[in-house]
């Protein structure tokens, strides 16, 4: 009888003294901010709804659409980022490759940040800017990555008309395993050429070229984590990409291929 009571007691004590494990963030879940959308002539803004009363400055992500696309097509993904505290400036153009409207979005937010009558006055973190986009817009993100104001890029299934040699910040290049429009090999070519910057290649298992459209599905969590890491210095998000226990490196459920170049900190 005493033995039967003693064993559960030992187990309780052992469990009670075991080190607590850090909770794993659900990057695909909406963030803490309610969101709003403001459609302009050149760019559409997705941002925290109560930004005027915010006690902080919010990092910026500029976005480029795929060929023939509009920000509305990617609304769910852009609102996901806004819910995590980012100001997303999406170019209102179906032909984004040159990145002109994306750069104009940075210029516009610079003016709004300086305008006392704007809800964005003093709320835009112009020292933390990322560039992203899909397909042709992914190529545009690479083009805009040459801008000295842009800290990091996240091209999603980027088209070929860009030169990553001009990019100066870290890059996360995403491909779709079943993409028959922008083949994974084309995205890997950008990765292979990015030997002057920290670069990561991630191939989403089972994804085709349009998986990110509408409900972004498997693209929501890793893209959110990338921006939380790059533009907010979130240590949990960093561990998904950098370090010896790189989260995406061991997640074979989401990724069919992950590569990190020699400049990515181990």
TrEMBL record:
Protein's name in the database: poly(ethylene terephthalate) hydrolase
Coiled-coil region: none
Keyword Chloroplast: no
Keywords: Hydrolase, Lipid degradation, Lipid metabolism, Periplasm, Signal
EC top class named in words: hydrolase
Signal peptide, first to last residue: 1-22
Subcellular localization(s) per the UniProt record: Periplasm
Taxonomy, superkingdom: Bacteria
GO molecular function, one term: hydrolase activity
Catalytic reaction list: a butanoate ester + H2O = an aliphatic alcohol + butanoate + H(+); (ethylene terephthalate)(n) + H2O = (ethylene terephthalate)(n-1) + 4-[(2-hydroxyethoxy)carbonyl]benzoate + H(+)
Any matching Pfam family: PETase
Domain PET hydrolase/cutinase-like, residue spans: 80-230
Known EC number: 3.1.1.101
């Amino acid at each position: 009888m005493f033995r039967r009571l003693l064993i559960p007691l030992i187990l309780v004590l052992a469990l009670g003294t075991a080190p607590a494990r850090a909770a794993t963030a659900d990057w695909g879940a909406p963030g803490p901010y309610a969101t709003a959308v403001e459609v302009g002539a050149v760019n559409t803004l997705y941002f925290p709804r109560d930004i005027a009363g915010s006690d902080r400055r919010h990092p910026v992500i500029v976005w480029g659409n795929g060929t023939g696309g509009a920000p509305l097509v990617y609304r769910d993904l852009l609102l996901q980022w806004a819910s995590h505290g980012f100001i997303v400036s999406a170019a209102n153009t179906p032909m984004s490759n040159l990145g002109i409207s994306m750069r104009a979005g940075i210029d516009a937010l610079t003016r709004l940040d300086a305008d006392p009558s704007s809800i964005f006055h003093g709320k835009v973190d112009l020292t933390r800017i990322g560039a992203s986009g899909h397909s042709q817009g992914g190529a545009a993100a690479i083009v805009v990555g040459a801008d000295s104001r842009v800290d990091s890029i996240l091209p999603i299934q980027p088209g070929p008309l860009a030169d990553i040699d001009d990019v100066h910040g870290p890059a996360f290049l995403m491909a779709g395993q079943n993409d028959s429009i922008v083949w994974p090999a084309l995205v890997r070519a950008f990765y292979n050429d990015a030997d002057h910057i920290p670069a990561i290649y991630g191939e989403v298992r089972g994804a085709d070229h349009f998986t990110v459209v509408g409900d972004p599905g498997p693209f929501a969590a890793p893209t959110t984590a990338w921006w939380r890491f790059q533009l907010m210095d979130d240590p949990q998000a960093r561990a998904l990409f950098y370090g010896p226990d790189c989260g995406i490196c061991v997640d074979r459920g989401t990724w069919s291929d992950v590569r990190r170049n020699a400049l990515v900190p181990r």
